[in-house]
Amino acid sequence: MIRTDLLHAIALTFLAAPPVRAEPDPAVAAALATAAPGTRIGLVVVDEGGREIVAIRPDERFMPASNTKMFTTAAAFAMLPTAGPDDAGATVRLEGRDVVLTGRGDARLSSAADCRTDCLVDLARAVARRTRVVGDVVGDDSAFPDERWPAGMSWNNMAGRYGTAISALTIDDNVLTLVVRPGAAGAAPTILGDGYHRIENRAVTVLGAGKASLDVARLPGGDVLRVEGTVPVDAAPDTLLVGLDDPAHRAAWRLAALLRAEGVRVTGRVVVRHRPIGPSDDLRMRGPAPPPRPPAPAVLARLVPPPLAEDLRVTNKLSQNLHADLLLRRVGAVGGTGSVADGRAAVGAMLDRAGVARGAYDFADGSGMSSYNRVSPRATVRFLRWAGTQPWGEAWRATLPVGGVDGTLTRRFLGTALAGKVFAKTGTLNATNALSGHMIAASGRMLTFSALANDVPGDGSATAAIDAALVAVAAAN
Question: Rounded to two decimals, what is the model's pTM?
Answer without folding.
Answer: 0.91
